[in-house]
Structure formats: structure tokens, C-alpha cells
């Protein structure tokens, strides 16, 4: 009798808890997931593009045996030169951010339906796949960003003098062929796969950790901010060598005597730079790179969250 009463009380308590718990927000349609990811990526990139320009120029100046200073860059090219290549950067985010973040959530949810759970292993797997796919699709825009960001810092006789992202793309096709758009795709795709793990997957994981550690509400602005700051630092340290390799491969020119390119692959570039300049040469320009990565991680994911909150409220 006593046990029956206790069972009935437990059932009533479970019913009360279930009815009083806040309902989970309805899942967003796939179109909204991809759209908010792309728009948020573009908004975040507008904030951090100057840091990307500084990081690229610092890294490539080191590759050329030159000393880079922000003061010297501003004196020679002007303050607004930090926004060189902005159009290509935004266009890249249209493809890269929307595909990377959108595919991550799509694959994560599909894997959850198949496995019945979402753990860190599934986040890592989906981050690797979605990052690689997004990078390969957006590689042409990445090459354009690197070249446009660095062109004005080159000696006059070496400049390509690109006028716009359309001019850049047209000239690359005419002068070097379509394959030049995927020059440096190896380190770019590898880096993007690591970004998928160290940025997107860890962000998802850090959100849950901070909910537990700091008693935050998941997907609230403080929760997204803390998770984004942490994942931004982790992925900056992990991916900087690949970013340096990608910059060298995307901006390289054939040797005027032999006609051969100095860098032919990811591993060869990493090995060549490390042996000739030391491993830490791959981290030249790390501070602006971290400001770019951390800043973009924070600004992008906060923008995405705000856009999704507005969508749920007004759509």
C-alpha cells in the first residue's frame, strides 16, 4: 500500500516537472539555419577584416625576409589599406560561413537521429566533414582575399594591381587558369577541417560546459560569448601553421628561371618553412590572427544567435 502511494506521488511529481519545465524552442528550418550562418559570418567578417589583412601581410613579409610594422604599412598604403580585399572576404563568407556552420548543424542533427545522442565525438566528426566541404567550395574566394589583401604591400614591379574581386577572379582565370583558384587548397581545407573541430565543435561543447559551470542559459548571449572566446583561442593556436602555409601557397609566383612554384603541398610547405626559418616562423603574425579568429568567432556567433532569436520572435 505504502509503495503504491509512493509510486503515485513520484508519477505526479514527474508530470508536474514536465509541465512546468520551459518548452524547448522549435527547430529552425534549414533555410534559416544556412541564411543566419551566412549573414552572421558576413557581419562578423566586417569587424575583423583589418586584423586578417595585418596577419596576412605580417606572415608574408616574414616569408620574404622583410620586417613588418603596422605603422609602416599605414604610412605607405594609408589607414584604409587594412580593408583591402574586403569585398572578396565578404563574398567568401557567403559560401564559407553559411556552408560550414549550416552543414555542421545539419550533419549533427542527422547523426543525433541515427545514434540517439550528440556527444563530443559526433561533434568532431561533423566538424571535420562540414569544414572540409565548406573550404573546398570557397577556396577561390580565399585566394582572392589573400592576393587583394597583400597586393599593395608588394614592390611596385611585383604588384598585380587588382581592382576588385571580379577583376581578380577574371585575371586569375586568364593569366593562370582556373586551377590557380585551388592553389593552396590543401592547407586551406586541412585548416578548415581543424577549424570545424576547434571552433564549431568546441563551441557547441563549451556552451554545454558553461551552462553547467557558470549556470548559464544555453544559447544566451553570455553563454555564446564565453564559449566563442574559448573556442577562438583554441582554434587560433591549432590552425596558425596551416594559415601561414595557405598564405604562402596562395600568393606565390613561379621561379623566373625554372618556372617552378616554391611550395607544392601542405607538408612540403610546413617542412620547408620550418627548416629554413624555424618552426616559430609559422606563427609570425599570431596576435592579429588571434584577434581575427577570436573576434570573428565571437562577433559571428553572437550575430547568428541574435538573428535566430529575432527569426523565432517575428517569423
Tell me what the structure shows.
It is built from ten helices and no strands. The protein is mainly alpha-helical and 315 residues long. The protein has helices at 2-20, 30-63, 70-77, 86-115, 120-150, 165-176, 185-213, 221-251, 266-277, 286-314. 75% of the residues lie in helices and 0% in strands. The longest helix is centred in the first third of the chain and has 34 residues, at 30-63. 43% of the residues are buried.
List the helices and strands and how they pair.
Elements lengths: L1 H19 L9 H34 L6 H8 L8 H30 L4 H31 L14 H12 L8 H29 L7 H31 L14 H12 L8 H29 L1
Helix pairs in contact: 2-4, 2-8, 2-10, 4-5, 5-7, 7-8, 8-9, 8-10
Write a short abstract of this structure.
This protein has 315 residues and is mainly alpha-helical.
